[in-house]
Amino acid sequence: MQEQVQKVVHYPNLKTILAIEEVIKSSQMALSRNQILARLPTKVMRSTLNLALRYMERRGLILETKKGFIWTFNPSKKLEKAEREGLEL
User: Could you read off the pLDDT tens digit of each residue along the chain, which spans 89 residues?
Assistant: First the structure.
């Protein structure tokens, strides 16, 4: 299935992405798009929200289920240590 190409009206800025991330991360249950929009501290256009959600899903931070979006990112302590102490080439 090919992704539909849409004209982007407004790209999300970092502040918006971080706010969406915090809303999803702090929730104990799956959230629909409407629930995410309602919990955001500022108004966000639905197209901007959809773009941010698609970005976060591709990066492996969230997962869309039948009930909504859930936070899935779980940083590895071993990987963090390897990055911190590793040899850079």
Answer: 455 566 777 899 999 999 999 999 999 999 999 999 999 999 999 999 999 999 999 999 999 999 999 999 888 888 778 878 877 66
The CATH number covering residue 80 comes to 1.10.10.10
CA distance 45 to 41: 13
pTM for this predicted structure: 0.77
Q: How many domains does the chain have?
A: 1
H or E segment to which residue 62 belongs: strand 62-64
Q: Is 53 exposed, middle or buried (0-12, 13-18, 19+ CB in 10 A)?
A: buried
Specify if 2 maps to a domain: no
